[in-house]
Hints:
The protein has helices spanning 2-66, 72-77, 97-102, 236-243, 247-250, 266-271, 281-298, 386-393; strands spanning 118-119, 122-123, 129-130, 136-143, 156-166, 179-189, 200-204, 206-212, 217-219, 227-231, 253-254, 262-264, 301-303, 307-309, 312-319, 323-325, 330-337, 343-345, 350-358, 360-363, 366-369, 371-377, 381-384, 399-406. By secondary structure, it is an alpha/beta fold.
Amino acid sequence: MDELRRSEPEAGLALLAALLTTALVATLVWALSVQNLIQWRLLQGVEAQLYSRILAQNGIEFARGLLPLVDVDELLSGADGSFSGTDLAEWRNPLPFSQARRMDPESWTPGRDDGLPSRGGDQLLPNGYPDPGGGRFYVRFSNNPEEPAHQDRDGVVLVRSMGVAPLKLRNPFLASTRNNVTLIESRLLQETAFRLRSALTLAGDDGNFQWAGSQFLLDGGHREPAVRLLSLGGDGLGTEFLQNLSPAQAGRVRGAGPEPSLTDSTAAYRDDPRHRSLFQAVFWRHFQDHLPALSADTGIVHLPEGGTLSGSVSGVVIARGNLILQGDVQLRGILLHLGGGGVILKDRAQIVGGLWLSNLSVDGETIRGGSLSLHLSDMASVRYDADAIRLGLRSFPPTQLGWRLLFPEMKL
């Protein structure tokens, strides 16, 4: 009997220990489950965040590919051709941050089309770009702050790309939030320095110009001169261009103004944001350093030692040394000759677009001009064509001047 009385407290203690042990184990299991759930939710959130960032980066690449193909001013005004202004707080964004987090992408439509990707009056991504993974990216172009919002002059634009990724698990405390959103801004420069405005552009100090026969042609059309001079060393360039032209040959240099149609555009180009970089040493250093890679990646024809051009070519040809165009060769686009020799056009060779003839060297921050050489004979011709020049400029990809992630707390 005494033994039974002694075992009752021991049994109670054992039961209590068992209950405490069970409760402790249950608590640990519950804590582990909660921790796993939290980590899983965090993982889902990180996955959506990474996905939205990838989408936004893809939007920037889409914009880089589109920019050379469109007119920037038309792009800024949108497919309807009317700029709506800058009164909205987030007018540069594809859509407001708060709306992007809550919306159903399937049912969203833009309220205005300024800067949305378009071409020829047709919107290209009216509801964003749907990715097979369920997310979308949205893109909007806007002009850089240094210029009027509706008109581009320097070729620099801002593009903002917003990646929207649906959340697989929604926060019960933020029930209206259904998407993770990333916004990236890129500052892009579309190359416009070589948007030629004449059949022939001469950039140098002096030149050797030879004319043979009276059937060749330099034609600027009704609005542009046949020849523009960019002089870096006095007035000798224009004098030397004209001195060997006979009266009959002078009529073969025609365009806006009297014949021969020639104008000195040095001052106008220095003042024009699209062209002033042609007088900057940093531009030419960058251009020369990146020319091999540029020609390898874009299809630009690069002839560093000159040679003979034959057949039909479209786009851009960049050459040094002696370059000969003869026979029935036709170049539609832009020929950039950078010196080290001359250009010879004979027989029925044609350039439809524009010819840039230069011989420039960089000394520190100073650009020095050299001597140019051009020989035109037989029925060879250079005809100014703005559309062909725009076609050639598409070969130059935009240069990225800046890149940043944007957040709702920033001034947008």
